[in-house]
Design a protein that fits this description.
The protein is flat and about 55 Å long. 12% of the residues lie in helices and 0% in strands. It is low in regular secondary structure and 57 residues long. The protein has 1 helix and no strands.
Length: 57
């Protein structure tokens, strides 16, 4: 059995509200299990980041 690989990205993620992402990609500086960004944000009392919907319209 042979599998042909197509050129190009294998996944594209559009994340307009990065604090809500639940993918936990290992290379992500926000949500990797090795990152403390979200823990630090909560400890500092900073709210989740939200993109204004007006930017998308």
């Amino acid at each position: 059995m042979s599998t042909k690989t197509k050129q190009g990205p294998w996944r594209i993620t559009f994340d307009t509200n990065p604090d809500d992402c639940n993918m936990r990609c290992i290379m992500c500086e926000e949500h990797s299990i090795y990152s403390s960004c979200q823990i630090d944000r909560k400890a500092e009392g900073r709210p989740r980041r939200r993109m204004d919907i007006k930017l998308m319209r």
